[in-house]
Amino acid sequence: MADVNIVGFDGSGHSGRAVDYARDRAKNSGAHLHLVLVLEWSPYSFHTPDELAERHKRREQELDRAYKIVQPVTDDLNKAGVNATCEVRHGHVADSLCDIAKEKSANQIVIGRTGDSAIAQRILGGLVLTLAQMAPVPLTIVP
Amino acid sequence: MLKRILWAGASLPLMTTLAHAEGGIDQMISDFVGPIVNPIVSTVFYSVPMFGANVPLIVGWLVIAACVFTVYFGFIQFRGFKHSIEIVRGDYFDPKNAGEVTPFQALATALSGTVGLGNIAGVGVAVYIGGPGATFWMILAGLLGMAAKFTECILGVHYRNEYEDGTVSGGPMYYLSKGLSEQGKASLGKFLAIFFSICCVFGALGGGNMFQANQSFVQISSILPFFEGKGWLFGLIMAAVVGFVIIGGIKSIARVTEKVVPGMAILYVGTALIIILLNITAIPEAIGAIFTGAFAPTAVAGGAVGALIQGFKRAAFSNEAGIGSASIAHSAVQTNHPATEGYVALLEPFIDTVVICTMTSLVIIITGSWAPGSGVTGIALTSQAFESSFSGFGYILAIAAVLFAFSTMISWSYYGLKAWTYMFGEGKTKELTFKLIFCIFVIIGSSMSLGPVIDFSDAMIFAMAIANIIGLYFLMPKVKELVKDYQAKLASGEITKVEK
Q: Are B152 and B326 in contact (CB under 8 A)?
């Protein structure tokens, strides 16, 4: 079975570079790229009754919007001869990337560096640092 | 949208001018509505003398219903408690549904509508009038109420309306009309649904709005003398904030309060716990006082029955079991089986009444703040009890009261709106009309001391229970069927815990 690489993608320039990097490697290795867009969501956040009633509709809209960002990139990869799929999921970004890596038996996770300063990362708790601490498979950080 | 907000803003000064002319207008409104509402109030709260005390029949109506559901569902509140915790913890929440409303969120939203002044002020009133023994009856009413919530929330989900755009509407008006028409009682169902909706709209404007605005103004003016006599100004600010959330759709304000409210609840319960721990030696005596007070009280008007009525009444006020309001909030949850929502909902009276109300009354009892006939009652009594251990807590309590009131108002604006759209149909203009009326009532509520109107809104909230519980009696076999089906699926392994 071919290697599976999970690529974190959110439409930003950083994540775009991560996709480029993974694509270039995949062309040689024949790895399967699985692009993942995680929508930050917590099962414990609070909503007004109004928001509860609209939640299902909003979720569909969020998923729709997210697929519009990630699907064209996936299609381009496929056109470029790289085997690629994509997925949008609600949840905690780092947790979800790790979960998907386990589900897909991936052999690495590729993400883009966010470019925040060390201080900002420490205060805000950057995704990169969090992932570095908990990734179940090797993690590649693309500058 | 902006235009609407501006329009809403423009209509407010007019109201404040009216409201500013206090005294006179107060009296005028009282004189005008008094003759209309007094008969309604005395009908809903019709009391019969029993064992030397006046027993309001509506309280008996709620308690008997809660007992019936408890027995009919085989003490589900105890047998199903563990399962409830598992559902709320997310043990049965399919990760594929991430992004949908979780059982925890449904519970938290429904709780933020019920945890409020009832837990702070209501308990103060119950202990003042009913003595420590009222606590015992309050806990019992809370435990029984769990079965009533279980029943109404399952029906709320089962008979909800799902629209093409993915939004949902549910609640007693839908299960009363749809459920009873399934049983060939369409016109009775329609009548009960309309009756419920009318009461719900007035209850939302009264108990869910004016009462909350009024009480939080009293609290704020006690710590900020600037606001004294400026109820209209406080009302205007409060109405603006409420308007931003419900008309302007500025969800961030709601989200902030929704985050602060649980924090406040934790702070409140935490402080109560500390006070209880500091006075741990007084606990056996306090528990003794609660039990003796429940059956053989001294210095309580009406004796044991007096304590019982106070306990039951305040518990019903606080946790709203049997009223039907929570089932409106619970209907929105995404679930494959309505029964799960019943299990989630039965935790509400437990947290609201059995935990939080009991904490309040324990603090009042062990700090020795209860002084029969002293005139210190309601939120003042609770505040005094907390202050005796932590001076300055009165300020925190005042802020907590305002935030609790605010979240209760947001919840009730939604309940009222759902009842309104049930009667008048969905539509932007119709919804906006109700929302504007709701905002205007915030100002009226905080600038006037409308005794009869407040009584009327209390009566309306309890009147919701008349229609709701009649419907629950008719529909409880349906609930049993749904629960049996769910339990069978659990037993067969068709529904299993999600592996983590």
A: yes
